[in-house]
TrEMBL record:
Taxonomic lineage: Eukaryota, Viridiplantae, Streptophyta, Embryophyta, Tracheophyta
Role, per record: Potassium transporter.
Keywords for this protein: Ion transport, Membrane, Potassium, Potassium transport, Transmembrane, Transmembrane helix, Transport
Chief localization: membrane
Record domain K+ potassium transporter C-terminal: where: 560-806
Record's protein name: Potassium transporter
Family note: Belongs to the HAK/KUP transporter (TC 2.A.72.3) family.
Cellular location(s): Cell membrane; Membrane
Annotated region described as Disordered, given as residue ranges: 1-43, 660-679, 712-734
Transmembrane segments: 82-107, 119-136, 185-208, 228-245, 252-274, 300-319, 331-351, 363-386, 423-446, 452-475, 482-503, 509-529
GO molecular function, one term: potassium ion transmembrane transporter activity
Amino acid sequence: MHATVSMDSTESRWVFQEDESDIEDDEGEGYDDSPALDSDDDNAEHRLIRTGPRVDSFDVEALEVPGTQRNEYEGYSLGRRFVIAFQILSVVFGDVGTSPLYTFSVMFTKTPINGDEDVLGALSLVLYTLILIPLIKNAKVSLLPNQLPSDTRISSFRLKVPSAELERSLRIKERLETSLTMKRLLLILVLAGTSMVIADGVVTPAMSVVSAVGGLKVGLAAINEDEVVMIAVAFLVVLFSVQKFGTSKVGLAVGPALFIWFCSLAGVGIYNIIKYDTSVFKAFNPIHIYYFFKRNTSKAWYALGGCLLCATGSEAMFADLCYFSVRSVQLTFVFLVLPCLLLGYLGQAAYLMENHADYETVFFSSIPSGAFWPVLVIANVAALIASRTMTTATFSCIKQSTALGCFPRLKIIHTSRKFMGQIYIPAINWFLMVACVILVCAVSSITEIGNAYGIAELGVMMMTTVLTTIVMLLIWQINIIVVLSFAIIFLGIELTFFSSVLWSVGDGSWIILVFAVVMFLVMYIWNYGSKLKYETEVKQKMSMDLLRDLGHNLGTVRAPGIGLLYNELVKGIPAIFGHFLTTLPAIHSMIIFVCIKYVPVSVVPQSERFLFRRVCPKNYHIFRCIARYGYKDVRKENHQVFEQLLIESLEKFIRRDAQERSLESDGNEDDNDSEEESTFSKVVIAPNGSMYSLGVPLLSEYMETNTNSISEAGTSEEIRPAPPAEDSSSDAEHSLERELSFIRKAKESGVVYLLGHGDIRARKDSWFIKKLVINYFYAFLRKNCRRGTANLSVPHTHLMQVGMTYMV
């Protein structure tokens, strides 16, 4: 016996281990009436621990599929690891790898070269920007507590000792949870960062491809700017057309090309250093940054926007971590990418020491004549690869935003059976392509595109810094001095860069700001409307008392057959079911509420597809079912196969529960016989101190009686004399056979799919803005997004749909 308190199923909090009153019981569908437990143990050990999320046992069971805890990188051969390294180059580092194509060009367009000291100062800025942002800021990710090996199995439920950091974390968490303003501010920050990532996915292909194709003007004097734009547009169309083949296939195909690109960068850089000027190594002395600003003052400040371009794509290291392991990304950057980039920039600076006038095409002009055309081809291939880096990062962010209810549902295609994070979103892919083509045609200047690039990149960087600081305070619980140092240093650097690019916002880069604002509004409106819809559905869901008052016929006629009601609620009776009862002249003799759940494995075995639980007493014949699918499972299966598998699984559930009931009866367990179902909840404390509250559904003894009515939830237990063991066993067997026979007859009568479409409308007395947002903008997004039932493959003769509108 233990105390129960109704709490949010996703909440976790810090409690003393003996304080069991904070552990939530089962899903609470009207069957829990356990009395409170008195704490009599004065010698109980007090340990401050964090309880696990209040997860319903059904949700826990639904995720228990073989393979969900497997490390995707365990047991790989050396050859396979090399293949992954090539894929990392193409997916993660393509963007930052092509930055030498345009960084010095944009910088010296804003700050003309007046001497060798300007070259050294600009080079020093580039070197330390690379060291501070891609290396120190992003590489530190593995040194923080969230990347411990044990966290691959249990992410956030480690035993904590009371400390100043823990108390600070609890205070901040409480403030965030109780302040509506803080919640909205945090949501705005997250959505702003995500919108900047999507904007980055537009400007990155434009910048990379145009700068690479621009090298033709060095090799072919007759080619003009319009022809460069046309070729760039053709390359962009090809780029987005091959995106559908997936990260692994495309990454493996172009990975070796990017490896050759990095080697070319290093080789050309070493050649230029030896041929032109070895004194460029002086740039590692940061004093040259001071001299650069002293000589050029405000012009040097304008050049900061161009300097930032050397670190473009570094934030993709965060977004693309779902594609590959953290350690593999870091090692590839430190031992291959960074050294090649440094040599490339040093070589370009050495060339500029003797050729000040060639800054606009410094990369291609510095290539030895014998190697020009091969390097030009590799540069264009690398530019196409770089464009994919932010495209895949955009796919990743949009998928996560969709899962969190912050982006309209779209068709997502998983391109790999081994890596869940490797995805392709067709609608976003073509949308980005159109936006890129428009940007290239409207703004063909490398400098103007570079300004837009800097704004998008800095928006992502600043939001990442702010949110990482919050995570360091709340989750990682790092010393406050370290947290403040991180925030002040990196946010200060990024704000300085941001002030530089904002000064040039009128030079065409405003286009990307408008694009980011539009994406932000789409996400905010979708989140706002979805939140109102969900809250309304939860408030208006049918109560168990109402169903009991209606009786087992549900106040209508129960026609033979099975009705599968699809809904998104995992607890409670959806309001749309009441709409079916009042709209239809009859309802099926058996009702199954079906909820689709995706688990992080590629394929779920058919024998483990369905989980069942009773929703009402046995004679109501109402069940809840969770249908589990992996991310590579084909949902559009034959409906007859689906129905047969579902019924077989339901029969197995009923037999298994009958066996459990029989075993409990033989063990003289103290069951509540006045209810058709009782719920036993137990607390499990893991070796690491985690506390879980899991409910196990059990069937009570079914006894036909004409005199006793169905007892309501919350009534006291009724003590009855136990029947003889033989009679009890015989009654249980007859009850089981009657129920199985009932299911088979219902199946023979036919299966109908009941689909309810719930929409929301603003009340007449609502504010004008709310009416505009809900009735027009959100309604438009909902009408054009992918519905949750889009994957059903059901004949129209077996389909019944009912619409319902909620006033909010």
